[in-house]
Amino acid sequence: KDIVGPVTGALDKVLQLEAFYYKPNELAKSLGYEDNKIRVGLSAQKVKEVQPEAVTPASFDLDENKQSKSGENYLGVDYERLVPLLVEAIKEQQGQIEALKAEIAALKQ
Predict the structure, then answer these.
(1) Is the entire prediction scored with pTM above 0.85?
(2) What is the mean pLDDT of each run of 10 residues along the chain (109 residues)?
(3) Per-residue DSSP letters for 21-86?
(4) Beta strand pairing status for 55-57 and 19-22?
């Protein structure tokens, strides 16, 4: 890998995302998405705004040539690619916690 730079502002990016429960709608089913389970997820459109590297074409909308079946170019989230963002967000948050702990300790003296 050629590292091109650090992930910055990770916590702010994570705070912009909203998780929700969903199940496939009729359109997804008509495009071949057969799973009807309730799942938890993120909006691919919102993820694209904050971490575009984690968004891919939706698998249910791809034909054998990897082209959009519907012509709508539906998106999906590659959750594995969000892990580095989450790691950096946790580290940023831990830095804030440590700073607050130090501030509290200084006030107690």
Answers:
(1) no
(2) 94 97 86 84 97 93 90 94 98 98 94
(3) EE---HHHHHTT------EEEE-HHHHHHH-GGGEEE-GGGB-TTS-BSSSS--EEE-GGGGHHHH
(4) unpaired
